[in-house]
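User: Modeling request: complex.
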Amino acid sequence: SQKIEQNSEALNIQEGKTATLTCNYTNYSPAYLQWYRQDPGRGPVFLLLIRENEKEKRKERLKVTFDTTLKQSLFHITASQPTDSATYLCALVPSGGSYIPTFGRGTSLIVHP
Amino acid sequence: SQTIHQWPATLVQPVGSPLSLECTVEGTSNPNLYWYRQAAGRGLQLLFYSVGIGQISSEVPQNLSASRPQDRQFILSSKKLLLSDSGFYLCAWSATTFNTEAFFGQGTRLTVV
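Assistant: Request completed. Predicted assembly structure:
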């Protein structure tokens, strides 16, 4: 069956360091992959999208990589700040069809001052 | 610009009572519409999606139903709530084109008592 795996344990890092979050998937052929941020009690907010034929995407302090051979995406936040503390979700969208995103469980990031 | 409205923000309902959650989208036409549920510490579970008026697809069999009476209105209903229906319900929309992200409402925290 299709599976999207994100580390269920919270990631704790010090302010100023780079946070790296992982999204692994199996039995899936995504057309593209998305990353979202979710704050407690709020809906997810879209951050970045990367297509299957792209290796890397950047937006300000954010960087996403996508390796379809390893079936893995890495999400990096450089120069992390306490305000980056949130849960980060990856979502895969299949090729063809109705472009419905399937979400991972998310990883909680805690940036300590 | 596009906006999505979801209400109510919180709801406490007794077991066996009916449910109606409403979601409306502004500033776009013919969107894909979604209802997700997020249990505590869990990922987003897709409940229903709709690609057009009156077109509803169910992903998980349960005592919930969805309707799309108008292009930008999506309603989640139940005739009799169960304790297991408690959770955080999220409405979302996306454009019906490739390489598009999902936009989420603020969510409804439902507690069935």
